[in-house]
Amino acid sequence: xxxxxxxxxxxxxxxSVFAEKLSVSLCVLRIAAYxxxxxxxxxxxxxxxxxxxxxxxxxxxxxxxLALATLAGVTILVALVSEVFVESxxxxxxxxxxxxxxxGFIVVALVGGAAEMASAFSAARKDRLDLSVGIALGSAAQxxxxxxxxxxxxxxxxxxxxxxxxxxxxAVAMMLIATMTASLVTNSGRSAWFVGVLILxxxxxxxxxxxxxPPRLQ
Length: 218
Known about the structure:
By secondary structure, the protein is mainly α. The chain is 77% helix and 0% strand.
């Protein structure tokens, strides 16, 4: 996701064309990687993703038809709610003096990931840390490998202007720090409440920075 930002071209005209072409190419590759990831987890190596408790209790997954129908229904409801939410956020952003970066990185992300966060909290309360972490990382991977590429590709069809994956330097730094933080925490194999406090502090630092960031630096 950060490659177009890392290899940006100084010439504005050339750089814009280059960023658009590279972004589209990378989006296709990432969607392919996401599809192969689904094949890996749902078909060829599904035993790797069965929790110990599920294997012990013999829980039976939903039938494929019911799961797809439920997913389609929820997707439609989320799309309808999103329309209302976007209009509300635009009005709230003006009223509370929120910067566009704060709205995009914090507000929309919090509301959009509410379902995943509720599931992760529920798993953590049941002492199923593997499931809780898996939900959080899986949601982030889905956004990076599927949602963002789809938005870029659709912008060429329904958007007013084509989108690309070229981010401003501050966003690049925050994404790198967030990725390294998640990697360090999950690879250690253990955790404690103070580790959670430090992770929240990193998030609050990002939120405070984005809220106070002048528009010209975004």
